[in-house]
Amino acid sequence: MIGLESVRAKLKDSHRPQTVAEAMRPIRESISPELRGRDALKLLIDTRHDPIAVLEQGHIVGLLYHADLMRWLALHQLERGQSVRAQ
User: Fold this and answer.
1) Most confident of 8-12, 13-17, 67-71
2) Other C-beta atoms within 10 Å of 77: how many?
3) 3-state SS string over 37-76?
4) CA 58/CA 51 separation, integer angstroms
5) Domains within the chain, CATH numbers bracketed
6) Helix, strand or coil, per DSSP, at residue 31
7) Which residue has the higher pLDDT, 52 or 9?
8) Whether residue 6 has pLDDT greater than 80
């Protein structure tokens, strides 16, 4: 998987990546599309991986970002009539 974080880290190296493969980082953690939002957020926080790959039958079907999940949780709370606290 490649992200801005990976590219920035590689740019600090004396050997700058010439290909996408050189800038990529391995997928260490992944989740299933069926994982509950609360559990996905805990995993994102615990592992500090952002984004985290969403795999289905061994194939990447998406990437979950901490910010996107926080927006989803806030909207979910608003729909349920709960107050949303700033973090």
Assistant:
1) 67-71
2) 13
3) HHHHHHHHHHHCCCCEEEEECCEEEEEECHHHHHHHHHHH
4) 17
5) 4-79 (3.10.580.10)
6) strand
7) 52
8) no
47-56: long-range pairs with CB below 8 Å, 24+: 50/5, 51/1, 51/3, 53/1, 53/27, 53/29, 54/30, 55/27, 55/30, 55/31, 56/32
What tokens were used for 76?
A: 């979910």
Residue 84 token pair? 């949303």
**pTM, full prediction:** 0.62
pLDDT band for position 72 (cuts 50, 70, 90): confident
CB-based contact 3:10 (threshold 8 Å): no
- pLDDT at position 40 over 60: yes
